[in-house]
Amino acid sequence: MSHLNAKALFRILIVFVLILFSFSSCSLKEKTSNNSKKPNVVVIFLDDSGYSDFEPFTGSEQLTPYVSKLAEEGTVYSNFHVPQAICSASRAALLTGCYPGRTKVFGAHAPREHCLSTEFTTLAEQLKKNDYVTGWFGKWHLGDVEGEWPHHRGFDETAGLMYSNDMWKYHPTDPEKWGKDPLRYWENGKITIEDVDSLQQKNLTKWSSAYAVDFVEKHKDKPFFLYLAYSMPHVPVFCSDEFEGKSGKGLYGDVIMELDHGVGRLMDKLKEHGLDENTIVLFSSDNGPWSVFGNHAGKTPYKEAKATSFDGGLRTQFIVKYPDVIDENTVSDKFLYSIDIMPTICKLTGSSLPKNGFDGEDVMGQLVGEEDFTYKRNYHAFSNGENFEGVFSKDGRWKLHLPHAYRHVKEYGNDGLPGKYQQKKIDLTLYDMENDPFETTNVIEEYPEVAEALLQYCEMHKKMFYNEKE
User: What is the pTM of this model?
Assistant: First the structure.
């Protein structure tokens, strides 16, 4: 009898465990399907912001109350990366879910240049097919030719610059090259300022924030996608008169203060209309700081900076707020990659995925901290310009650098003028990012089998996307 009771108890225990597993696996689905109304989507994407520029992230020296509040209402992800730490390449990866090697969008494109081919669908185009109204305000940098401007790439309302704000006649090192074309300001497909001057640069952040708030006001009764891609804090740094001298941290601090205020205005507008409970908000930067500009650049605790494939360039701030789905006031060290934002947003909004090839995947399980989440991808590739430079392992613990040159800041600049670089080289190097996130110690001799596996993935990636270079 006792033997039968033991068997019965064992069966009951098995059933109980299966029920628990069933509830666990359904929890994310239930959370995201409780609201039949499509969620709004807001992506705030800064330009060259340092990992430590804002209070929720390590090392901030100034108060940024609005971004801090956003972090309290969502989750801070401390291990988020972009596949290339340069303007155009990073933006293309964000909006298409593709590696730079697939789109061939490398580095930072110049005025009047072709950039992101229409072969690759943007997130805005996918959401628009799903009856979203779409808006972009700030910096585009994905093509300055007919057919590639934002009003041709899925955005209903647009305003801002088509390329970086330093591509103008006052460029600090090469005004002759960058002054050939005027720095134009566009609004809804038309040029409204033929040649932006310094006084107008001071208002770029204010204008983008105002457009974003107005966009929400106008479209509060429809599902919307807002891509707020600020031009700041890319050099030359400017802020409006209202914030000049207010941070006590110099001009760069004033710029960060104004960006923080813009985030606050937008969040307040969402709350004013009761939209914040059904809005997915993402906050990040295209890459790390342009450190050679010294006091006009942000800070990062990680190795090197923008335009390198070390984590000072690739690892950027990331906050996600989505009430009742993403945990509040939480910090996660789960590995994330920017190419996964597009497919994840498509899944959350019930939008179709692009028919063209792409590399990202739905990572909602990682965002909500599911213990059994694993990437389908076996590796995460990174590059610098046209050079493929290595991969992270599937779980993000290991980072393999192929041999490559890189630029290191030898002397920091001051007040808008750059300092000096020196060229360095790295040999085949394996870093244990879990125990050495600052990339100080090559452990390839201790873990040769890890390096060999990652090398095979490097060869696979090169054959897929870089074969024509050999």
Answer: 0.93
